Amino acid sequence: MKKLFIKTYGCQMNVYDSDRMSDALAASGYEATTEINDADLVVLNTCHIREKAAEKVYSELGRLRILRKSQEAKGKKMMIGIAGCVAQAEGEEIMRRAPVVDLVFGPQSYHKLPELVGRAANEKVVETDFPAEDKFEHLPKAKRETTIARGLTSFLTVQEGCDKFCSFCVVPYTRGAEVSRPIAQVVAEAQNLVDGGVKEITLLGQNVNAYHGLDEKGNSKGLADLIYRLADIKGLDRLRYTTSHPRDMDDALIEAHRDLDMLMPYLHLPVQAGSDKILKSMNRQHTAKEYMDLIDRIRTARPDLALSGDFIVGFPGETEEDFEATMQLVKDVHYAAAYSFKYSTRPGTPGAEMDEQVPEDVKYERLQRLQELLNAQQKEFNQSCVGQTFPVLFEKKGRDEGQIVGRSPYLQPVQVDADLSLIGTIQQVSMHDTGKFSLFGKIVT
Ligand code: SAH
Ligand code: SF4
Ligand code: F3S
User: Fold this and answer.
1) What is the number of the ligand closest to the CA of 168?
2) Has residue 200 got a pLDDT over 80?
3) What is its EC number (predicted)?
4) Looking at domain 2-127, which of 3.30.590.10, 3.40.50.12160, 3.90.76.10, 3.40.50.2000 is its CATH number?
């Protein structure tokens, strides 16, 4: 067996894709390793979302160049491939900057990986086309042993690409136009995961709630319909989905949150900013009030639902007053968790051409203030969980002897003293304390 080492950057879709790459290469005799020094093939599955993310790839390639040299001195060959969104965005440019790279391939070519790796043994290969065929049809199914080894929870991509073109974002260019997988294909993959021991599935899409896949009769169905179909799979206990766009939260999906207990009451719903002027120039296609009204409707349908979000500070033209509107929106929503970033100028996006770029020190200072508020809200949310009882899916041994760890509906790690035999089960747990991120509880019978 040859050894494959994959390093994954970026979002959950890259995590899912890295597993698909391992599955695809297993057929050509590659087995995954966590030890880079053993690798015959190293793949960096990259992210292009912010400048820093993209630059990480080149510093890693600097290290790989040295590693490859020392491997060659020992007579061992090592192939280097670049996958993911930097591969898609930069293509051949990567080889110009880093000649150590043998193979560059975008997210739409993973089903062709065995062939591409074969060619790369003799020549430099760049594959960044968006092919017409359905890559998912051609990707092999994960084997039962691998799904077990990968654990009790799994990602499952149901939709890829984005048609929204937010003016700061590279994703519509790196992942292409929105494509949804047919319902039957998703149900079959979910069943395969559940047969392999998976209890919780997170449906993935760049715009997952814009899902519109065909059913068996050729009718187009939304995410809510897909969720109801998956909810019927015996042995599947929990469903989640991410990332949603506020514009695509339809009534059917909100009702699914009301009616389906197995759909976890936790929603990642990025808003990015609280000022209507900035939302407009970001091309988010909604106002702050429309977002707040939407949240009211979701919380009316499912009062115990908690929210997380993404924020960008320092978008071009953002004044102190605009930033204050973001702070106010956060105060009004009360997030359970959130990710926040300084605006990063991405070449080729409309934002890069805008006047009034915000100075770095202003961005930095705003990010500090926003993160302080968001951290306080996260802490507040965790504290509000103490005294409550939630179902917890136990996933693994804890750090201390006699301890096991699972996840609450809100993705918080929960630690309890209990027997290892409960791993893989869902138990009602009463929470008695909270640490920085995790909760401590006791199983109630
Ligand atoms: N599809 C998702 C998010 C994809 S990218 C959505 O519509 O919300 C994940 C997050 O990265 C975004 O929500 C945004 O907050 C952040 N992001 C995207 N482009 C960025 C940029 N140019 N600079 C800083 N943050 C960015
Ligand atoms: Fe990027 Fe906007 Fe599409 Fe999200 S909706 S992936 S932020 S363009
Ligand atoms: Fe990054 Fe591509 Fe995901 S740019 S965030 S890896 S879709």
Assistant:
1) 1
2) yes
3) 2.8.4.3
4) 3.40.50.12160
Which residues lie below 8 Å from residue 313, measured CB to CB, with a gap of 6+? 323, 326, 340, 341, 342, 343, 363, 366, 367, 370
Residue nearest to ligand 1 atom 18, measured at CA: 169
Whether the pLDDT of residue 187 is over 80: the answer is yes
Nearest-CA neighbor of 347 among 170, 228, 224? Answer: 170
Instruction: Find the ligand nearest to 167 CA.
Output: 2
Q: Which two tokens stand for residue 111?
A: 């089903």
Beta carbons of 69 and 86 less than 8 angstroms apart:
no
Give the homologous superfamily in CATH for domain 153-384. Answer: tm_1862 like domain (3.80.30.20)
Amino acid identity at 223? L
Ligand 1 atom nearest to CA at 349:
22
- Quick one: fold of 389-443? OB fold (Dihydrolipoamide Acetyltransferase, E2P) (2.40.50)
Give the rounded percent of residues in the chain with a pLDDT score beyond 90.
94
Residue 166 assigned to a binding site: yes
